[in-house]
TrEMBL record:
Residues 2-229 form the ABC transporter domain. Coiled coil: none annotated. It is found in: Cell membrane. This is ABC transporter ATP-binding protein. GO terms for cellular component: plasma membrane. The lineage of its organism: Bacteria, Bacillati, Actinomycetota, Actinomycetes, Streptosporangiales. Keywords: Antibiotic resistance, ATP-binding, Nucleotide-binding, Transport. GO terms for molecular function: ATP binding; ATP hydrolysis activity. It comes from Planobispora takensis. Its main location: membrane. Gene3D superfamilies: P-loop containing nucleotide triphosphate hydrolases (3.40.50.300). It comes from the Bacteria. The keyword Acetylation does not apply.
Amino acid sequence: MIEIDDLHKRYGDKTALAGVSFAVKPGEMFGFVGANGAGKTTTMRILMGVLAADSGQVRRDGRPLTFEDRRKFGYMPEERGLYQKMKVSEQVQYFGRLNGMSAAQAAKATADLLERLSLTGRAGDEVGALSLGNQQRVQLAVALVHDPEVLVLDEPFSGLDPIAVDALAEVLVERRTAGVPVLFSSHQLDLVERLCDSVGIISAGRMVASDTVEELRAREGRRLLKVVVRDAAPGWTAGLGGNITEKGDEVLFTDVNGSDQEILRAATKAGTVEHFGWERPTLTEIFREAVA
């Protein structure tokens, strides 16, 4: 169990974190989402000991996190830290050795990871000769090579093509299944929703929502009424209750304070109703509401 408890951090007059708290359980994948500058990277750096918090604490299994604990973590920072002139295989093995692996252990783990991440054919290439997406895969291999007990990944899917995303997702799911707490940040909310057990939403240094994905989607008052009307007369939603978002023929109603039958009658008069039903919001919609 990794616990982030009431973290505060300021840079001069700027508040970076204002009481951030959440927990990542063993065998749980936790998605940490927020706009640029919201505090995700600062939180992760404090977790990894790169920054010191002004107040608050990071704990593992109820005790303060130590340097030895962090040596067993796999960390992928926002700013990639690869040696551009070093060959791919040599680089991953080097970081394995830094994390206490023998030469044989590091070589075997590197070969396995490069195969999983479709990098075997680039093992002898210099990192600087790779595309940004392939450099991202190498950085991930560096974070995974020593079989970490905890994974902390800052935007691991950034710049990856769909095939690479699937390969990375498969690796992370395997680590979660093995009982590893996995914390990663991402702007790809559909991916977070698909992969994660729990989600934390941070805005301006404050946690504005944190729960399981299912609980966030099922909370009372968050249901959406989706209506699709083809060839609708302009302005057909005027006078209807609730918050209304129109996307072409699709209209989303939230906070409906009247009868949905009234909306159905208006839609029927407006045109051909192709869809009418209550839906739970996506993580993207929850995020927009939470940070508004």
